[in-house]
Amino acid sequence: MSNPTFRDKVLLVVICALVSIIVATGAGILTRITGASLAEAILSAGGAFAISMGLSLTTLSALDLV
Question: Which one is predicted more confidently, 2 or 44?
Answer without folding.
Answer: 44
